[in-house]
Amino acid sequence: MPADRLTDYELGDVLGVGTVGTIYLATEKESGRQVALKKLHPKVSQNTLIRARFKREMTIMERLRHPNVVAYLGGGRDDGDQSLFYAMEVVSGGTIADLLESGGPLHWTAVVEISRQICSALQCLHNHGVVHRDLKPSNLFLTPDGVVKLGDFGIARDLTAGDLTVGQVTVGTHAYMAPEQITGDRSVSGKADLYALGCCMFEMLTCRKVFLGENYAQLFDQHLKQKPPSVRDFAECPVAVDEIILKLLRKAPDDRPFNARQVQAVMLEVADSYRHDHGEALLPAEEHVFPAGRSELVERIRRRMEPQTREIDGTRLAIAASVIAVAIVLLIVIASVTG
Known about the structure:
Layout (H helix, E strand, L loop, with lengths): L8 E9 L3 E8 L5 E7 L7 H16 L8 E6 L6 E5 L7 H8 L4 H20 L2 E2 L8 E3 L5 E3 L6 E2 L20 H4 L8 H16 L9 H10 L13 H10 L11 H18 L13 H48 L1
Antiparallel strand pairs: 1-2, 2-3, 3-5, 4-5, 6-9, 7-8
Helix pairs in contact: 3-5, 3-8, 3-9, 5-7
């Protein structure tokens, strides 16, 4: 049974702080399982709209059981301040944003493998009537073995329920917002997530945003009117990858690919072509992993995490050296006194 009271958890380090909640590393007391626990800030916990959105987030995550979506592990209410909370799996390999910040652009094989997994997650969302509305590198979490997990459903829209967005408000992160999100179109669909996927793929390959407006107004105008650049102007990748990105970035939703599965099919075709060209055996149809891309991704994750390990080892070494130095000084002092 999932724990449904905050007292069932031992809260640890703060993993992140947002506008309405804080995420803690926590331990479920009964099982000893480590979780990431998101708790609504007490100051906003009595706001009816914010509570409704938080409950909606919990409901959406509970419905989405998929290997490429951060797993929901249960939730409840704090007996003290009545704040809502929920627990989710800990994903320990960082995010796509972390990889780009620490090591620059990703090789196209890794981008194909990542995109394949994102498409699988998006198809699950859209099949359940959910639009994420905030797909971006910092919301794409990684396991050390290269599994991509989509997280942060704070502004996701459930098309099967009432919209909690107030008025004609733009919702999302500016650099990844589809034109229909910018204009506040109430009929926004999963096609907006596909546009954001195109933005993410472009950024993973180039380490730059599709559009580089100096302010929000200019950036919005570019998303609405300006033709996106070809990714091949900045990075090497197969023509098919460049073409699908440009299709994803089309201004009109109906001009984009039909669904995420269609984009995933392109990724699988590119992967099969690579394996054929390199004399690698094709995998059974049910095994969609792109080995070359997965290996490249795992290596990038390992390299990003390695400096942290070295830093810890270096600190331990420095402490040990200090202890030895103090011990030697004490021995010298003792020897001089007794001598």
